[in-house]
Amino acid sequence: MPQEIELTPAAIARAVGGELVGPEGTRKPSGFSIDTRTLVPGDVFFAIRGARDGNAFVADAIAKGAAAAVVSDRTLAGSQLAGTALVVVGDALEALQALARHVRRASGAAVVAVTGSAGKSTTKEMTAELLSSRYRVFRNKGNLNNHIGLPLSLLELRRKPDIGVLELGMNHAGEIRTLVSIAEPEVRVWTNVGPAHLEFFGTVDAIAEAKAEILEGAKTEDLLVANADDARVMRHAARFAGRVSTFGLERAADVQALDVRDLGVDGTAARVRTPVGEADLRTGLPGTANLANLLAATAVALRFDVPLSEIVARAAALKPLPRRGEMTKAGGVTIVDDSYNSNPRALSKALSTVAGESRFARRVALIGEMLELGQTSEALHRSAGEEAAKSGLAALVAVGGAPARALADGAVHGGMSSSAVYYLPDSASAADLAVTLIQSGDLVLVKGSRGIRMDVVVDRLKAELA
After folding, report:
1. Among 110, 193, 375, 435, which is least packed by CB within 10 angstroms?
2. pTM above 0.85, yes or no
3. Architecture field, domain 9-91
4. Residues carrying CATH 3.40.1190.10, the chain
């Protein structure tokens, strides 16, 4: 195993241009933290100023066993914290980002960065799994993908994996630019553009402009993996400074799915054409959106010379991430738990998968409000309701505020009987209804933005049907 990068308090001070105050500058930390509630003994605590000033929690961090703290308040280096290693900097967040960039460069790891309006976490996980057949791979956990989470993730490259696979999130212009400047990826993956975070951008074109920051700072040898089926992605991809590899289901692409077979909740299968040959590919993750994600991951794996036969084998074993299309069977009911998040594009894909299923007695959807859609929210929900009405649903439960009510109205307008459409203001009420509404033999889709807590519905159904 490669020798781990030294990140003692003294080494941190040198890397970020800070001043080391106090003893124990040679103590090796176990990890890094920005939150005393989750800090474990041995961590270095970064006192970031945000809604609350992290400097006010340094004493608490030290009391909980922090090995050192990176602070912007020099007065902390007094008697109260005597004996503690402090790295004094101008701004703790900037120091965290600078340290992450330092580690990224010193690690020798190749970095793959994934962004997109939908599917980036799944694509990240798929990519890491395919690469793991040949390499030691690190991936950022959960949604640690913003200006704080990404640097914390990059610090794990201190253990010198071969490849780091990281997702980049954003909800404002300029955020991807910052993340790219820290991660400096050799491979960039752009899955798609859709109406997510419209509240902050106004138009899908504006979202595309912000996502296009993934292209910045590229070298000629860098690779962009781009969705050939997404016109906005491809329009921006034309100005990428490096090489471009495309993937797609509908248009000609470097990695292209042919003869696609949608197997409903059992996944998808296709003949896949690549620059190194063709193969039959199958995944248990449902929906053509997941097949597109797999094609993107395949393009990355091919860039690192993973044999196509190993890609096929790994693809067949892929499992959904928790609450991202996860399928559970309980009491004769099949539940598709897609409650982690939602946006119009992702909901449309999920409804399409349900519509293609004919093996169940009934198809039922419990759909939570999609958040951060701004002034277009009610119109987008109404349109989603009309689409739901065409999906062969026996019942639809819309959950949330006025946009969710618009979704229910759209379903009735689209042709569903008003007696089969329900509107409820919160997930607890929806869970109460679900346990009386669902019958043995049903296929149940549960989806919604995290803030609506549709996971409450899933957990209640599992408990009642067990």
Report:
1. 375
2. yes
3. 3-Layer(aba) Sandwich (3.40)
4. 108-316
